[in-house]
Amino acid sequence: WYITRYHKGGEYPVFYRKYQSLENEEELLLDVNILAQNHDFYDVGGISVSLDNTLLAYSEDITGRRIYTIRIKDLKQEKNFSEAIENTTGKIVWANDNEHFFYIRKDESLRAFQVFRHKVGTPQEEDVLIFHEKDEAFDVGVFKTKSLEYIFIVSSSTISDEHRFIPADNVFAEWKLFQKREENLEYAVEHYQNDFYVLTNEGKATNFKLMKTPLSQTEKEHWQELIPHRKEVLLEGFEIFKNYLVLEERERGLLQIKIIDNQSGKSWYLPFNDPTYTAYIGLNLEF
Fold this sequence. Notes:
The protein is built from one helix and 24 strands. By secondary structure, it is an all-beta fold. Among the domains are: 132 residues, 7 Propeller (Methylamine Dehydrogenase, Chain H), CATH 2.130.10; 57 residues, no CATH class. Strands 4, 5, 6, 7 and 8 form a five-stranded antiparallel beta sheet that branches. The chain has a four-stranded antiparallel beta sheet with strand order 9-10-11-12, with no helix packed on it. Strands 13-14-15-16 form a four-stranded antiparallel beta sheet, with no helix packed on it. A hairpin with a 6-residue loop joins strand 5 and strand 6.
């Protein structure tokens, strides 16, 4: 269990965790109030714990320009490693080996344009450039699927996306292109069992549709329709869990949340009795 708390008189959050049960004793991960001392400005861009729960990577901005430096804390020894990874977006994605993570650097215009791999305990000068986005119309991002099995690099513009991926267990694997970029082709990817799920506007699906495709055949000609395009319903997003698929659908201006049982195929909507309301899928880290 991970907990964020603000203490009385403190301006910044304090991060804790508890092992297995909320009844267990809290372990302090990071007190941002202490980190912020002696700085006129301080912001934590993100924190990320390695899969074996021994290392904490966090990013900090002390200038207000949203340029973050990544630092690494040994949670057993309760001390920081010496290295500092500078000029990043603040996003940190751990590989499953608990030794490497991926991060993004910014160019002079603050565009996210390069993805690097870092090995804990080594200087930034030894980091490996994994991907360089040369088209200035595109920004890059990096994420791990909720299943924890794949790591994706995403290049995105206003009207186009391109993904490439590796198994999260093998940082040295060759990155595979999911579907090459095309003008007016937008898509987002998640993983579930033997398939990737794809939210896309492919085929002039202006309100988007949900597809799936085998792990070994990711080009769009292999995509199979799960939720079709509908003229009256905008498919805004989706979440995959071990037992359920959850959809965000907007109809007549209101967002509805639809739940589908992955085994039985039965589906239902969460009831909202008010004539107007705001609803959306929040952060869900559990698969």
